[in-house]
Specification:
The chain contains 12 helices and 18 strands. The protein is an alpha/beta fold. The protein has 2 domains: 2-132, no CATH class; 140-402, Aldolase class I (TIM Barrel, Alpha-Beta Barrel). The longest helix is centred in the N-terminal third of the chain and has 24 residues, at 78-101. β2 and β3 (20-25) form a beta hairpin. It has helices at 78-101, 112-123, 126-139, 183-197, 219-232, 235-238, 255-263, 278-283, 290-302, 317-334, 355-363, 370-383, and strands at residues 2-7, 10-16, 20-25, 32-37, 42-47, 50-54, 60-65, 71-75, 104-106, 154-157, 159-160, 179-180, 207-210, 241-245, 266-274, 306-313, 342-347, 394-397.
Amino acid sequence: MIVTGTWRGRPVTLSIKPNCLTVSLDDPAQAEVYSYDLEGRLWTAFMNGRAYRRGLDGKIIVRWRDPGAARERRWLDLEQALAVEARVRQAVAGLYAALESGAAQLNGPLPPEARQALCDAIAFDRARSQADAAHYHQVYKPIGILPPDQYMAVVLQATEGCSFNTCTFCSFYRDRPFRIKTPDEFRQHAQDVRAFLGRGLSLRRTIFLGDANAIVVPTERLLRLLDVVHEVYDVERLGGIYAFLDGFSGEKKSAVDYARLRARGLRRVYIGLESGSPGLLRLLRKPGLPADAVAAVRALKTAGVAVGVIVLLGAGGQRWAAEHVRESTAVLNAMQLDLDDIVYFSELFPAPDAPYTQDAIQAGLQPLTPEEIAAQQAAIEAGLVFTAARGTPHISRYDIREFIY
């Protein structure tokens, strides 16, 4: 439902959907736009040419692009984030007061659901925002990363940490050992997440089974955990279950195993291939060979489960560049991907203290320039071969610096 009107001579648009409220003030070309979930949490805001996104933990990232420049981003500190929320809340409260007093006019009555959503957004003040963020940290261990198409998922941490945790470029799970939750523990976690999200659950689009590679859990134990998900959530209504798999280590599941998981709602599995070069994988301390990832993808595809395959751009620098392109292209082609799948290209951004950074310095690896990074992706894409029968997978960049949940 869309309601339009005017306030102080400026156009006003209220978009009321079953899962969110969006408020737009002013003409589309220069509008300020705010979106909320149905608990009143600010979700996104667009102001002065800058896009803001609030995570469930209360953190806010702002992105913008100046004319002729590359896109930039910045994480706000706590006070800056709260100030953004306060500014948006003040604007929405002013609009609501004007609607109530008649100073703002709509082309029709204010629908009850819009009134409720506006009141919930206004009630989500500084204290409520901080309490909500604190509640988030009670429910979740740190969520390291998600695939971009899963940023709006309901994350359920069936496991914690990473089962091998050796990749030199990754520091997401260094703070905790890998463990698998018991069904009872996981059930309580799933219920706690649902209570935390509240009416904001309606904004979530899928279920993501965390952490780093939950599908590595032995099949029988994993099936019991998926049964718990079905107890607490309407899996089909939310769009199914998604998860990471390292593709190299742990119990190697068969197509029969994956078919059983698919029957419980598993729809796509994401595999960090990183590279098709065995030598480069050893440099990255990835536990296995490219053939392991190909076998995992083939088994998943046979079972009717889609895949997302992640390739690490810039890994190995100049020394490994040609082999990385050649072998990664060959491995991706061997996977026989189709239109249900995704290929993500993720640029390498190791922290200064990451083992990869130290290994690269010791090995004298020369990093690629931004232009060479773009050329590397283009070269791999140019070598990919798809058939009309299978179709072409979605191909996209994956910038870990912009991850927010």
